[in-house]
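SUBJECT: protein chain
CONTENTS: sequence, structure tokens:
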Amino acid sequence: MGVKGLWLHLAPCGRKINMEGLEGQVLAIDVSIWAVQFMYTTNSNSNEFGILDGFIRRICKLLFFGIKPVFVFDGQTPTLKKQTLMSRNKQRMKQQVNYNKAAEKLIQNLVQETMLKLK
């Protein structure tokens, strides 16, 4: 869930760093962020191998550059985040219903158009 507007406040002092510049340093990794990123990039929440592959590749890259990763696992989901997730799920379900209705109308129109051409 993160802190809303955090990057806006950090932008003035933020700078890009090359991986080579982190050699020998310890880097904290938010495991949940990586997991979510890999779920979206593998296009499936049930693709464990894609997620595992993503973790392995990133860990290998960090180790290649001499970076020592420390993995951070946050605790249980806070109540506010649970509410946000429920709200997002409801919105997704509404969008799916709207998508299904639009698809149904499109199919009906195609059928009607085909029937008119056959007459």
Notes: The longest helix spans residues 79-118. The chain has four helices and two strands. Residues 27 and 69 are 5 Å apart (CA to CA). The helical segments are 6-10, 31-41, 48-64, 79-118.
